[in-house]
Write a structure and sequence with these properties.
The protein is an alpha/beta fold. The chain has one domain: Response regulator (Rossmann fold, 3-Layer(aba) Sandwich). 44% of the residues lie in helices and 15% in strands. The protein has seven helices and four strands. The protein has a four-stranded mixed beta sheet, with helices on both faces.
């Protein structure tokens, strides 16, 4: 998650994620994220398809249902082509397959942050 008020460079946030956020404050599951202040403060959300509890596609759907247009990037190692199509049809900015380079991830995040939310 990239918060609107982080004030840090994207490179720094990716290289040192534990310095950019307090791990104890970060929601541990999609359900917890939906009910938190993070849902409204997030400028870009990077999701995997396979997550504990609610999967990434369901979280994307629920955010849209709630009127939250946060840009979503999917990052997955075990996705089918149908999963990818579903995510993109539902508005994902990009669907990236692991492993991925830091530059490719930064490019996807920059693209996502350019979109109106």
């Amino acid at each position: 998650m990239i918060k609107n008020d982080s004030g840090l460079s994207l490179e720094k946030a990716i290289e040192e994620p534990t310095r950019t956020m307090h791990p104890e404050d970060i929601p541990r599951a999609a359900e917890e994220f939906l009910g938190s202040e993070w849902a409204e403060q997030t400028a870009c959300l990077i999701l995997d398809l396979r997550m504990p509890g609610m999967n990434g596609l369901e979280l994307q759907r629920r955010l849209a249902q709630n009127g939250n247009a946060v840009p979503v990037i999917f990052l997955s190692a075990q996705a089918s082509e149908e999963d990818e199509r579903s995510a993109l049809r539902a508005g994902a900015v990009q669907f990236l397959r692991k492993p991925i380079s830091k530059d490719a991830l930064l490019s996807a995040i920059r693209d996502a942050l350019k979109r109106p939310s």
